[in-house]
Design a protein that fits this description.
The radius of gyration is 19 Å and the shape is globular. The chain is built from 8 helices and 12 strands. It is 29% helix and 23% strand. The chain has 315 residues and is an alpha/beta fold. The strands form 2 sheets. Strands 1, 2, 3, 4, 6, 7, 8, 9, 10 and 11 form a 10-stranded mixed beta sheet that branches. Strands 5-12 form a two-stranded antiparallel ribbon.
């Protein structure tokens, strides 16, 4: 477990570092049937990402950077930015399919976004400090933000290849309404990430057994999985461009191919260019992959409000 000592806090104060929270909010919500990142779940119309912003502010983050699409910028500013801008510094970056590295053009007919790796890359010019990446439609819990903020607050922004990941128990990340995909992690005895393997169609049967589409990988409730809660330093952007160029050279004409951040991290680990500290979380993650997840998410948030974890109105 990572422990923030008095000495490391003093170091962080001297460096005057406040990490940035990057929220990936450009998704199209095809399985959900709409823009789930803007759907409301809290008692006063809060989105799931409002709770992430609230937890991040309390943990000491200095800025929130939303990655969105220009097509809904006006609505996003009206419903999200307006209520948050007096509480924390806000910035926007735009994930558009034609925003690619020099020398590459988006093929005609592509409708699917390029993936999470691309979403992070488009914000490269706006980040100069250690930062966290999360999904807009996932609820991570306040402890995850606290631990990650402590880790990043003592991380020199000039450091290269020293990252972190918040890991969750597989059993705490399943949906009651359909199968999910998870990055199943291999973690060393000293808590370092050794690899991430994407496994799809993960679900729990009536007997409580967990299985996925990869029958060669047995799954257990305590397996550590990635929920796209990453801590990076700005050097990741150069790696992303390098890997994305390679990806595009092979997949440019594949309209369904996506460039995912876990694949990049896994490659960097195996190439010896990155070390990733795993920060375990016992929290029960929840998100809204399917429309049927909506009511259970609302119920969970209502329980957290009723028990005093969150106020009735966040902002």
């Amino acid at each position: 477990m990572y422990i923030c000592t008095f000495a490391t806090i003093l170091f962080a104060m001297e460096k005057n570092m406040k990490p940035t929270l990057m929220i990936l909010a450009a998704g199209m919500g095809s399985r959900y049937g709409g823009m789930k990142q803007l759907d409301t779940f809290g008692p006063n119309g809060e989105c799931i990402m409002d709770y992430s912003v609230y937890d991040a502010i309390r943990a000491g983050f200095g800025k929130v950077l939303f990655v969105i699409r220009r097509s809904f910028e006006d609505e996003f500013r009206r419903t999200i930015v307006k209520k948050l801008e007096n509480n924390v510094d806000i910035a926007l970056a735009y994930q558009e399919m034609d925003h690619l590295p020099e020398g590459y053009s988006c093929p005609a007919g592509r409708e699917k976004p390029w993936g999470t790796g691309h979403a992070i890359w488009v914000a490269a010019h706006q980040v100069r400090e250690p930062f966290v990446v999360i999904n807009a439609d996932d609820f991570y819990g306040r402890e995850a933000f606290r631990v990650m903020a402590e880790y990043l607050s003592v991380t020199d922004p000039e450091t290269k290849g020293q990252y972190a990941m918040c890991g969750y128990r597989l059993a705490n990340t399943l949906s009651d309404h359909g199968h999910v995909s998870r990055g199943v992690c291999k973690v060393s005895q000293d808590g370092m990430l050794e690899g991430v393997r994407e496994i799809t169609a993960i679900e729990k049967n009536a007997q409580g057994q967990i299985s996925g589409n990869d029958e060669g990988v047995p799954l257990k409730p305590d397996d550590m999985v990635s929920m796209n809660f990453w801590g990076f330093t700005p050097d990741i952007f150069a790696y992303l461009e390098e890997k994305m160029r390679r990806f595009l050279s092979s997949n440019l004409q594949d309209h369904k191919a996506e460039f995912f951040i876990p694949f990049v991290v896994d490659e960097l680990i195996h190439e010896g260019r990155a070390r990733v500290k795993v920060l375990p979380s016992n929290a029960r993650w929840f998100g809204v992959t399917y429309q049927a997840d909506k009511e259970s998410a609302r119920k969970r948030i209502r329980e957290l409000v009723d028990t005093g974890v969150y106020p009735e109105r966040l902002f």
